[in-house]
Write a structure and sequence with these properties.
With 458 residues, the protein is of the alpha/beta class. It is built from 16 helices and eight strands.
């Protein structure tokens, strides 16, 4: 996105769903080939898809309203969800003798910023597949109204990712936003207003990628490439996991050195000496958190924003402030000189937004993710985060699908959450409503964590 918006643009308009059966049919037929050869996914394993098939049957028979909450570890997830809905679901239904009316699809919410960096054609395609764009940095009433209408009356279930954004960690769930639970309770409210009595069910879906043929030799090659890109190559030829881990830790420290120097000299950010730590991992975690705060402060100071305690809300406020300068509704009223000045503001807002994007790329790194359970899959997760970060800093489109070899993905359907159980608490008062939303969100998180299958050590 940041490389696309170089001048003031008209306001971003809402992209509603415009489901098209011909577009869906073509994409659904091509998807297995793209999954295999485009994404490098050797196998897509569906776990407990029977539960989804039974609830989808009830949904089509008008017995339930269905909301699907899926994990979002990486940008390939929407395609994996498409494979689940368009291929694994009908296959499982046929095996169980369940007759589902085609197409088996789902409406889905996606970030309005995606078409800015992925291309307008992606927005067109998402709409034809049932996508609803939503602005993350503000209360997008139009998107929420559309989602509520579809959840109440739509032809398909509604799918959304409560993590909000990718965290690139297959065995670590990011903080969940309460929007999915809130949508479910709004649906119950809308059903009550319409005089209808139907259960509203949230069905969690876990997504987890693993290496198809794990290879420490391949990790050693990847490490050498990362070290060369950062300018800190080593002569080590070892493929031993502990040696590679020390190199990865050293690489992360070198990157932090570069970034801290950049922010200290260019933006006068203060990086005082830290106290001694028990381990390099603890030092890494502390330095990352300090860097993230400095990056956000640089953006917030320009936009005149006061930092809050919540990292996600800080990012969303920065994003919205930047978009207000980049996408304006008054361009037709500006003189040519004023238009040039508006372009200046848009360009600088675009640059300041990059500081927030940089912080987002490191927010999920804990410093202990690999060490707490040393596996090659966790090592690959962190190494690929660094690779994507280098690509982003260099203005390249990330291409990581073949760096670590073929992968496989496990799509696991969890246990349904019937919101009728929480409805009395939600209706009690405002405090009860907040508590009900929190409890459901916590239940979704617990299900996500339970659906993660620990990978073998080494």
């Amino acid at each position: 996105m940041s490389s696309v918006v170089a001048s003031a643009q008209p306001p971003l308009h809402f992209l509603p769903q415009r489901f098209s059966y011909p577009v869906w049919w073509i994409v659904a037929r091509l998807l297995p080939l793209y999954i295999r050869y485009g994404l490098g996914l050797k196998h897509v394993a569906g776990i407990n898809v029977e539960t989804l098939a039974r609830y989808y049957e009830q949904f089509q028979q008008g017995q339930v309203r269905l909301l699907i909450a899926f994990r979002h570890p990486c940008t390939d997830d929407p395609l994996v969800m498409g494979y689940l809905m368009w291929h694994l679901l009908p296959q499982t239904a046929r095996r169980l003798g369940i007759r589902l009316q085609p197409p088996t699809n789902g409406y889905f919410l996606y970030d309005r910023g995606i078409p800015l960096w992925a291309g307008e054609q992606i927005g067109w395609l998402f709409s034809r597949l049932g996508g609803i764009s939503i602005m993350r940095g503000k209360l997008d009433s139009q998107a929420l109204r559309s989602a509520r209408e579809l959840l109440l009356e739509g032809r398909f279930p509604l799918a959304a990712a409560p993590e909000g954004a990718t965290n690139e960690h297959n065995e670590l769930v990011a903080p969940l936003e309460p929007g999915v639970a809130q949508l479910g309770f709004w649906c119950l409210e809308d059903l009550a207003k319409a005089g209808r009595s139907l259960p509203v069910v949230i069905l969690p879906v876990g997504i987890q990628y693993t290496l198809s043929q794990p290879s420490w030799e391949r990790m050693a090659i990847l490490m050498a490439q990362l070290e060369n890109r950062l300018g800190c190559p080593t002569n080590s030829q070892s493929t031993q996991p502990e040696d590679l881990y020390r190199r990865l830790l050293n690489l992360a420290m070198h990157l932090l050195d570069r970034l801290e120097t950049f922010y200290a000299t260019s933006y006068r950010q203060d990086f005082p000496e830290l106290p001694p730590f028990d381990s390099p991992n603890a030092e890494l975690a502390a330095r990352i958190q300090r860097l993230l705060n400095s990056a956000l402060v640089v953006a917030e100071s320009y936009f005149g924003l006061k930092p809050s305690e919540d990292f996600v809300s800080r990012c969303r406020r920065i994003e919205q402030a930047a978009w207000e300068r980049m996408f304006r509704g008054d361009l037709d009223q500006l003189s040519s000189v004023e238009r040039c000045l508006a372009n200046w503001l848009a360009e600088e807002a675009n640059v300041r937004l990059r500081h927030m994007r940089l912080a987002e790329r490191f927010t999920s790194i804990t410093g202990s993710y690999i060490r707490e359970k040393f596996t090659i899959n966790r090592f690959a997760d962190v190494a690929l985060i660094l690779w994507r970060t280098f690509d982003w800093l260099e203005g390249k489109s990330p291409n990581v699908n073949r760096l670590v070899g073929l992968r496989q993905v496990r799509v696991s359907v969890g246990e349904p959450l019937n919101l009728d159980t929480y409805w009395p608490l939600y209706r009690r008062d405002r405090q009860g409503a907040r508590q009900a939303v929190k409890e459901v969100t916590d239940q979704i998180r617990q299900q996500f964590e339970a659906l993660i299958v620990p990978t073998d050590a080494y």
